[in-house]
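Quick start: read one record
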Amino acid sequence: MRIVSILLVCAAIFPWQHALCAGDQSDVGLSKVEAAKIANRFFAQEAGNAEASIMEPHVSGDQWVFPIKVGYAGTVGPAVLVNRFTGQATWVERLPPKQNESEK
């Protein structure tokens, strides 16, 4: 009888523990690699054959910020923003400021 009650308690606790751990992972948001895939797909659809490329991203608040190099000289132009929690991509004309590591 003790073994059955121990198994029932374990069966009740482990799904709860897994749900709590899964919730912690969603707070982190998209990884840099996942955000880069979304940004590249968005950029290809919106910019088409433009002479531009996406640069190394940084985090600013809830967004991954991908600056865009434009033209032969690689002048920094607008940026693609990817929300870390929803995965939605948008354009922005001015770059948001970089966030210090201590502010994250």
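Confidence is low (pLDDT under 50) at residues 14-26.
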